[in-house]
Amino acid sequence: MVWNKEFECMSLEQIQKFQLEKLKETVGWVAAKVPFYKKKLEEAKISADSIKSVEDISKLPFTVKNDLRDNYPFGLCAVPLKEVVRVQASSGTTGKSITGPYTTDDIEQWRECVARNLWAYGVRPGDVFQNAYGYGLFTGGLGVHQGASMVGCTVIPISSGVTKRQISIMQDLEVTVLSSTPSYALTIAERAEEMNVDIRKLPIKIGIFGAEPWTMEMRKEIEERMGIEAMDIYGLTELCGPGVAYNCSEKNGLHINEDHFIAEVIDPNTLEPLPLGEKGELVFTAIQRKAMPLLRYRTKDITSLSREKCSCGRTLVKMERISGRSDDMLIIKGVNVFPSQIESLLLDIPEVEPQYRLIVKKSGYLNYLTVQVETKKEIFKKGKPTLHQIENKIMYHIEQSIGIKVKTELMEPKSIERSEGKAQRIIDESVK
Ligand code: ADP
Ligand code: ZN
């Protein structure tokens, strides 16, 4: 069962026809309303009329995060401020945050996109929905809230933080669905264990996690510790917030709401579009928004697209789970390393907790990496020689898999700060 069969199960021909129509409308709209795009489109000699097929999207100019920063706060807004009914902002994970303005219709569409996600995860009217995403400027809280209300859930707008309370609410109100960042879910699971509450025995059955990269190993860890199905939700402030792409029953890849957002994957160096199946930078064009429809927005998120038939019946294009953002890629002794590669390896080591930090230091011209990871309580007690052996084991695994020697330090249990929102796992001391 899908939330919106008409749009989630269209044939490729229908979806492309729909996308073409909306793309032309959007190009016309921004050319008329946003001086930044008017200039860019004129320079590229493109108008709405010159777009004859969806593939012509590759002729459009790109938009990058700095364009949003340079035009902060409302330079890219295509409607007068009196039509803007809400402004949200990005979390600023990678620098100054940017704003996302919405019209009433934009909010309506956003809600619809999130409702599709939740329905695909198995959320239904009557579910008791604990929304532990931060409320406020961050799109996670309100975005998920709106979708859950639309589905007909009993929404608990608890926001993030005050973890002890999260657990009492989960017990007292017989919560069936939890949404948060994956790292905060882990914090909740850990706190519950300290409080001797077995979440696996509570009615909760679905977890909805996103807003930061997380590995399959992390999913398994959370699923086992909470006794739930953990589903992936993806989105970004520049497009609306959460709700852009979502897991279905296959739990393999995320369907993209492509009647709202045309997705491309490009080679970040040549900027040329890549064929289906090839990994590169994800680029989105918002084709139904009014307040801030971005053309070819470069997300810096790394993934690939697939149009293979999905057993859930949805025909929407799928993206592979995001392995990281290019901004997070570390270059260690000349080798490219994604934090997710390290996470996957660490979570396979039974003696450590899924709590880690990556410290980058510079020596001469090269960057060096130190991986700090917490030890399980019973292991830590065993003393230095055992810890040393485990450190060597981890170093060996990392070297075998990634090809570089990195220093590994086993840390005392609970010594690494816990996340309540997006986890900060990289500490870059190389730029000092
Ligand atoms: P910021 O860039 O400041 O973190 P946002 O809060 O808008 O701003 O976050 C959007 C970004 O969060 C995405 O571009 C992506 O890098 C990351 N993200 C969101 N959802 C997921 C997900 N399910 N998996 C991996 N990364 C995600
Ligand atoms: Zn599917």
Describe this structure in words.
- It is a single chain.
- The chain is α/β, with parallel strands linked by helices and 432 residues long.
- It folds into 2 domains: 1-325, ANL, N-terminal domain (Rossmann fold), CATH 3.40.50; 330-428, 2-Layer Sandwich (GMP Synthetase, Chain A, domain 3).
- The chain has 12 helices and 20 strands.
- The strands form 5 sheets. It has a 9-stranded mixed β-sheet, with helices on both faces. Strands 19-18-17-20 form a 4-stranded mixed β-sheet.
- It is globular and about 70 Å long.
- The mean pLDDT is 96.
- The structure holds adenosine-5'-diphosphate and zinc ion.
Fraction of residues in helix: 25-40%
Which stretches of 5+ consecutive residues score pLDDT under 50?
none
**Superfamily (CATH H level) name of the largest domain:** ANL, N-terminal domain
| CATH-assigned fold name of the largest domain | Rossmann fold
For the largest beta-sheet, the strand count, sense and barrel status come to: 9 strands, mixed
Number of helices: 12
Number of strands: 20
Say which molecules are bound, naming each kind only once. Answer: adenosine-5'-diphosphate, zinc ion
Indicate the topology:
Blueprint (H helix, E strand, L loop, with lengths): L4 H4 L3 H22 L1 H9 L21 H6 L15 E4 L9 E4 L1 H18 L6 E4 L7 H13 L2 E3 L6 H10 L4 E4 L1 H13 L11 E5 L5 H11 L2 E8 L4 E6 L7 E3 L4 E6 L13 E7 L10 E7 L1 E2 L11 E2 L10 E3 L2 E3 L1 H8 L5 E12 L2 E10 L1 H4 L3 H19 L4 E5 L14 E3 L4
Parallel strand pairs: 3-4, 3-5, 5-6, 6-7, 17-20, 18-19
Antiparallel strand pairs: 1-2, 7-8, 8-9, 9-14, 10-11, 11-12, 13-14, 15-16, 17-18
Helix pairs in contact: 2-3, 5-6, 7-8, 8-9, 10-12
Bound molecules: adenosine-5'-diphosphate and zinc ion.
The site of zinc ion has 6 residues, from loops.
